[in-house]
Hints:
By secondary structure, this protein is an all-alpha fold. Helix content is 82%, strand content 0%.
Amino acid sequence: MSLLDILVLVLAGIAAGAVGYATGLASIISYPALLMAGLSPMTANVTNTVALVAVGVGSFAKSGRVLLAEDGGKPLARASLIALVGGAVGAGALMLAPSSVFEVVVPYLVAVAAIALLLQPRLRARVGDRAEHPAWWLVGVFVVSIYGGYFGAGAGVMFVALAMVLTGLPLWRATLLKSALLGIANAVAAVGFIIFSDVHWGGALAMGAGCLIGGWVGPPIVERLPAAPLRIAIGVAGLGLALWLGFGG
């Protein structure tokens, strides 16, 4: 890997970190950048997962105290434990199952999450108080975390849509929660990949350094953006990602 490749990966990581925090679509920047640097799809996938841990670290270090302050951090602790288990299951599936297992359904999962985010006000009004039941939220966290540990492109959109429909959180809080939970799912998957798979450490460190910076600058930017246009932008970008995964990924 040349110095130019490393520089490009650092810059791509900064963009992925900031965009990933704001939209949950970090992989739409980071994964293609790793492919362009010459990594194989499998190596790019596991390297991408390791690098994206830095997004969660950066964003949580910047504003994680908001989540920790909620009921003494108990809701975050419960969801984090579920995300950890789900991420481990997803990483195991990636290393043990044929890569074709999820290739067909992944674009549809991302598309459903994007549509749910676009329709969030109507869905939230329809489910009403039933959405506050914690069991539904935790089941959703587990399922999305499995996907996040397996591949992850669009998992952030899924987490944001889940939080917006099944909780009463505003968008910026849902975005922060998404980064924390996705970071945990990525972290446990990354540990498995480091031990059992082929991580390209040059690419992971270069991308990770950029992601750390991007994750740090993301929270204050999102807090100042208007919620409705940002939600629509994330939903539309999610649909674009679904099309890319389905026809061009």
